[in-house]
Amino acid sequence: MPGLEHAAGPRTPGTATRGETVPTVPPASKPAPRAAVDVTALLERGRTLATPVLRAAVDRLAPPMDTVAAYHFGWIDAAGNPADGDGGKAVRPALAVLSAEVTGAAPEVGVPGAVAVELVHNFSLLHDDLMDGDEQRRHRDTVWKVHGPAQAILVGDALFALANEVLLELGSVEAGRATRRLTTATRALIDGQAQDISYEHRDRVSVEECLEMEGNKTGALLAASSSIGAVLGGADDATADALEKYGYHLGLAFQAVDDLLGIWGDPESTGKQTWSDLRQRKKSLPVVAALAAGGPASERLGEILAADAKSSDFENFSEEEFAARAALIEEAGGREWTAGEARRQHVIAVEALDAVHMPDPVRASFTALADFVVVRKR
Amino acid sequence: MPGLEHAAGPRTPGTATRGETVPTVPPASKPAPRAAVDVTALLERGRTLATPVLRAAVDRLAPPMDTVAAYHFGWIDAAGNPADGDGGKAVRPALAVLSAEVTGAAPEVGVPGAVAVELVHNFSLLHDDLMDGDEQRRHRDTVWKVHGPAQAILVGDALFALANEVLLELGSVEAGRATRRLTTATRALIDGQAQDISYEHRDRVSVEECLEMEGNKTGALLAASSSIGAVLGGADDATADALEKYGYHLGLAFQAVDDLLGIWGDPESTGKQTWSDLRQRKKSLPVVAALAAGGPASERLGEILAADAKSSDFENFSEEEFAARAALIEEAGGREWTAGEARRQHVIAVEALDAVHMPDPVRASFTALADFVVVRKR
Fold this sequence. Notes:
homodimer; mainly alpha; two-stranded antiparallel sheet; 17 helices; Polyprenyl synthetase family protein (chains A, B); magnesium (chains A, B)
């Protein structure tokens, strides 16, 4: 990933993952055991366990919501024909089934949790895409664009309700606790979207505000994903809290990397346009960090972005004009700061695992997923 | 209420309620004990117990969602000044606190349930008003009209999440059961809205389809309202199911009356325009029943409504033109059928209470609320 390669230290021996990119982050101060973990297999396991249950849950929706949801998940195309869409990286279900193993339970115990977090995640995507007016997601037209705003609202609502249903129909005390934690995460998700919307109308956003918003939008649900299987497996609150700390900081690392990819990512890998976040005038971490840094490049960037905000011709800007803005962000230190922030959050995430007693292979898998998140290219 | 007065039998002695309209529905086949119950006081009790807790819950929302929600509930006006808005009839909180007393618990035990059902109800209003493009609710501009579509989506989502939070933070097994029942009701609510939207695009809707839609949109949440306090008070599933049967059929009676008021209601009482549902081309019960009835008036009505659906001048129709349509609906029997349906559902609702052991004053209150629902004028 360009953002991290730029600022990364030397490669760390012993962190190679089978079939994966070598992580470019330095080890945590107290290195966790880093056995060879196949991250691709770990992600695939979560996807394989969760998808049939997710599809069965979505099939419960009354027409036409079942069809609209199936389109959103990429299982069918806009004409209703079966499709094999890009369902995303599936980090959340991988974390949910892995967290069940913390308690010694089978990964299957985490499956209702994996399905519930995926349903909440996709509820928020459906509503956010409509609120933000985003026309594309995962290389396809968004639901509101294809099926209209009412269906995007309605199916989002239905997926949210379904998430609670999938958990609560287990009927156990653990399911009640898991739903409560998921509800807290969902409220944070909504808070984050509210902040995101309000920041769009402001000239300046502080680094702290940006981190708080990203913690809500990305950290909270990755936190719930990292604890939900354990809670279903009977873990106590201290264990769940520690796993949520891991997930929350993993989310912040994830989002910092996302923000780097949003500017300097390779369109071939990300599936997005070049300078994607700049085109959307997103006040992402590299931008707010560059603006907060001070100095000539920071001041020049501030002047240019203020002028851009008033420009009526912004959509027709050339590649060179966006490249110039990206260069100023980098010159002001926004790129390096964000890469450093990703590494910092990665360290906090991995250290949080120290507070939890768990089998060594499970710990190694959590660590490998954290490593994966900061080296990914998409 | 015009719809029922038209078709009602003689007034039944012994059903008078203090300070209330005399019920115009015949008694159930096995008359429930009908002590003098002050329905106004019953509604006021639910409102008084629930409102402070509801306001405290809404205060938890991050800005600007707290303000938008306060506007929606009528606690402040569009400029942010305190207001004493019309919060609605508050039948749901009255049922929720009453249902706690079924188990011998204090009405306060039902309060988190009352707040949760009010939150879910208002989540659905916020989203439905946006989906339906409705600009007015309770004599005021709707949230999407004042604060924009994004806030209507976001605050709706937040109220839905808050409903689960308010229940699940009780941390009890009963709270988990109550949340599960509320989730089932919410899914039905969403199904009903999906049906409502799809029916708008169809020429004909059967009476059965209309009843199913109304059962989902209105019956399901009144069902949950009628059981939630009892569940929180420790009632078993059979008791909760019987109370939900009461609430479901109460909801169908409620909606039949609403459909009558939507055509023949007095604008002074309802706060809506004359012939409100006809202006919106709603396929409500009197309309679908009239269309299904057959005969000359039914056929003539079908022809007129089919022409109306294609008319580009519909919004400028005169009072007389709507009055003529209403007269045809009545001539075809749609008004009388719907009034009869309200009475039929009222009887089923009250009979459902026979399956539940509960203190006599509680039974009398449930019965009085059912009577109130079918005689109300707004």
